[in-house]
């Protein structure tokens, strides 16, 4: 039977989800429950929840993705699997990565890191780059703001970093939650000994999630937050640069 996945969006001409011009395939379902989630309508993997989603076959996704092959070739782009959390549909992700490899499309997996080490090993050879989210180092705060411990996320990052240099870190900068000095220093300290990981993107909090909480009638536990200023972002970027990391602000 042909593989089928639950997809809630497919974005063309994406330029913040990896190198070059890309198509980003958004998987439905995520094990985490971040208070600030920018795609709250996709967290529930259940397709019958009435929120945006569609079931797509492998062939349907690949037909869409292949339409922009010329842009990938010209820009050094490719296909990004995001969500939600693409690792929650590991069989469908695996099938798509195999199909992309056959077409020689560059592949990125944008992950929160919450999956088994075996699942990361299963796909590792067909992934060109992992965009790996790191958010909060203090486990108690991690459980509070995301619902689960960060142990598995940190273990998987250590595991992937030991295998090679495919991992680039993404850190959402959420005012009063992830942006405090203790958290940023703890992230730098953790990454410092993972020498294969030297690229960090700092993603300033934006109001997309807040709008969606309203639009889809999903409870908003954070209330209204202001977005970080350019000076706030530059100060955090400076800390990473001083410690030898290549830093980008934005995706
Ligand atoms: S990991 Fe991403 S998709 Fe999952 S809840 Fe957090 S912000 Fe939302």
Q: Quick recap of the structure?
A:
The protein has helices spanning 58-66, 69-75, 90-102, 117-123, 139-146, 151-163, 181-192, 208-215, 230-242, and strands at residues 4-14, 22-27, 54-57, 78-83, 106-111, 129-133, 167-173, 199-204, 246-249. By secondary structure, the chain is α/β, with parallel strands linked by helices.
**Sheet/helix structural class:** alpha/beta
Strand order in the sheet with the most strands: 3-1-2-4-5-6-7-8-9
Label the CATH architecture.
Alpha-Beta Barrel
Give me the strand/helix succession.
EEEHHEHEHEHHEHEHHE
- Give me the number of helical elements: 9
Mean pLDDT: 94
CATH class: Alpha Beta
Bound molecules: iron/sulfur cluster
Biggest sheet descriptor? 9 strands, mixed
Total strands = 9
Catalogue the unreliable spans.
none
What's the shape? globular
Radius of gyration: 18 Å
CATH superfamily: Aldolase class I
* First-residue to last-residue Cα separation: 36 Å
Helix content range: 25-40%
Structure description:
This protein has 251 residues and is an alpha/beta fold. The chain has one domain: Aldolase class I (TIM Barrel, Alpha-Beta Barrel), CATH 3.20.20.70. Helix content is 36%, strand content 22%. The protein has 9 helices and 9 strands. The chain has a 9-stranded mixed sheet. A hairpin with a 7-residue loop joins strand 1 and strand 2 (22-27). The protein is globular. The N and C termini lie far apart (36 Å). The model has no long low-confidence stretch (mean pLDDT 94). Bound molecules: iron/sulfur cluster. Iron/sulfur cluster is lined by residues 30, 32-34, 37-39, 43, 83-85, 112. Residues 30, 32-34, 37-39, 43, 83-85, 112 line the site of iron/sulfur cluster (SF4).
